[in-house]
Amino acid sequence: MDQSQRNAVIAYKPLLRAAAYVDGQWVDGAAGRTIEVTDPFTGGLITTIPALEQAQVQAAIDAAARAFPAWARTPARERGKILRRLLDLIMAHRDDLARLITLENGKPLKEAYGEVDYGAGFVEVYAEEAPRALGEIIPAPVPGRKLYAEREPVGVSVAITPWNFPLAMLTRKFAPALAAGCTMVAKPASQTPLAALALAQLAEEAGVPPGVFSVVTGSAGMIGDLFTSSPIVRKLSFTGSTEVGVKLMAACAPTVKRLSMELGGNAPMLIFDDADLATAVDAAMIAKFRNCGQSCIAANRIYVQRGIYDAFVESFAQRVAAMKLGDGLEEDTDIGPLIDAPAVAKVNEHLEDALSGGGRLLVGGKGEGRMQPPTLVVDVAPGALLTREETFGPLAGLVAFDAYEDAIRLANDTPFGLASYVCSTSPTTIAHAGRDIESGMVGVNTGLISTPYAPFGGVKLSGIGKEGSSHGLDEYLNIKYVCHAGL
């Protein structure tokens, strides 16, 4: 089907927006400049969005500042009810949102449905968490005083989100911000802005007041500079590369903003001899190939102990070879197009490097255009490029190891520390590995660890702060201590 037919899979037309959302209004760029949003599978034009001018982005920040006092004073339970109405709308439009994500991102439709559910989960969690931002009474050290601590919203917050999970990466920032009483201006990735604009549409329908939530589109550099330099903005949340995150942190320093940073990853997966083979293969398939490998917590390095290595290779290769590469809108597709041609070029670079270092190609091979087949290379050298850099694509490289100490050394031989995975049936091995691996999250006998109900975040160069659970709400709250004397 042609691009117009592909676009027509969105039944509720207000979800396919071609305008930014500022202070409760849908706006075009003041200078008429636009950004093309293309379908990764066809390369065809889905729509154009405005490239806002600096004054328009500033207007969104100013609107958030005006809306903040009333929103912060809105009872927490009322804020939670609005989020609950938004949750109901997201689920009512689940089909359209999934198709929209596939259109702009390329991921298989079944993955897009998973993202909608995952993103909706954050809205549900924070609808419930909104009234749970409790204070505390502190026993006074002397008579006649009352000491207490209250939690207050940080203020105007901003979010910069990536293209790989265009809905979920925003809801896990937007939902706790609004639940805490903050207002938010969001800047989605220019490659995938449509899910964020659809969320703005549904937020408006749910009753989020004007100015409380805006979505701005345009130059990442200009908008980022305005976000970081503004004294009005008190909180910035970013998901993306460590390189960009470091620059944002430095730019925020003069105004001492609160920061949440989910940055680069290089996740190891350690499969020990005593692992259950079927469980380990299932975990590796999810951890490596979920979202076409374009995930910050993807198993970038798979280390397999020699006693189970051959059996694992045989079983894993069969599963990888059975995956279908194709159009994400087809329900039986397992791997869709990558986000752009440079993403495929990076996978090819890692593949060529692994093969030149002695690796053997068992499944797949080089990609072309935006299509990269699921690929498996075995007997990869421990220092191969794919063990040092985030591949961000459907290329799995297996590295053999001998002893537990070797596995931990290899796992920790990186400046990153977002996620890691361990497959074993030994309680001792699991306990020791969970302690010894330097990462913010550890998946044990599973490749699916993300959930709105648990804290998500890394250590080392993988970022600061947490998203999800009550910890995610705390990122948008300040603690104020009050000492009341003369009682």
Description:
Its EC number is 1.2.1.16, 1.2.1.20, 1.2.1.79. Residues 26-482 form the Aldehyde dehydrogenase domain. The active site is at 262. 40% of the residues lie in helices and 21% in strands. It is built from 16 helices and 22 strands. Strands 14-15-16-13-12-18-19 form a seven-stranded mixed sheet, with helices on both faces. The chain has a six-stranded mixed sheet with strand order 9-8-7-10-11-21, sandwiched between helices.
Quick summary of this structure?
GO terms for molecular function: glutarate-semialdehyde dehydrogenase (NADP+) activity; succinate-semialdehyde dehydrogenase (NADP+) activity. This protein has 487 residues and is α/β, with parallel strands linked by helices.
Topology of helices and strands:
Blueprint: H1 3-7, E1 20-22, E2 25-27, E3 34-38, E4 45-50, H2 54-73, H3 76-92, H4 94-105, H5 109-129, E5 136-138, E6 146-153, E7 156-160, H6 168-180, E8 183-187, H7 194-206, E9 213-215, H8 220-229, E10 233-239, H9 242-252, E11 258-262, E12 267-271, H10 277-289, E13 299-305, H11 306-321, H12 341-356, E14 360-363, E15 375-378, H13 385-388, E16 395-401, H14 404-412, E17 416-417, E18 419-423, H15 427-436, E19 441-444, E20 459-460, E21 463-464, H16 469-474, E22 477-484
Parallel strand pairs: 7-8, 7-10, 8-9, 10-11, 12-13, 12-18, 13-16, 15-16, 18-19
Antiparallel strand pairs: 1-2, 3-4, 5-6, 6-22, 11-21, 14-15, 17-20
Helix pairs in contact: 2-8, 3-5, 3-6, 3-7, 4-5, 5-6, 8-9, 10-11
Domain Aldehyde dehydrogenase: 26-482
Keywords: Oxidoreductase
Pfam families: Aldedh
